[in-house]
Amino acid sequence: MKNTFSLVVVIIFFVMLSSVANKVKANSCQDPLGSCLQCDERCKAKHGPTGQASCDSRNQLCTCYYTCGPPSPTPPHHKQCYGGTGLCSSACNQNCAQKYLGGSGFCESIGISRLCKCQYPC
């Protein structure tokens, strides 16, 4: 009787574990981001802090893995807002990702200054 109970507990445990694993796989998406330059920062800027970047060293291509829901019939249209983080540096994109949810950064010359500008959904 004790062995039967133990077997039932083990079976229930594996059923629960496999259902959790299926839920995780069902909500995992990937997004090819091109070059490996600032791969992790661009991934997190585009898909939030849970985005996991991977750079294929052979082809030098960045892929972002992130949690997503079921595809919607029509993609939502988000208005884009702009901000900045001051003078441009190699961390411009990362700074924008940290300052603005879903933000990404780029450098722009204004007169003799190079400024870091951020674009983010609002």
TrEMBL record:
GO terms for biological process: defense response to fungus; killing of cells of another organism. This is Defensin-like protein. It is found in: Secreted. GO terms for cellular component: extracellular region. Residues 1-26 form the signal peptide. It comes from Brassica napus. The lineage of its organism: Eukaryota, Viridiplantae, Streptophyta, Embryophyta, Tracheophyta. Keywords: Antimicrobial, Disulfide bond, Fungicide, Plant defense, Secreted, Signal. The gene is BnaC07g51010D. The keyword NADP does not apply. Belongs to the DEFL family. The keyword Signal applies.
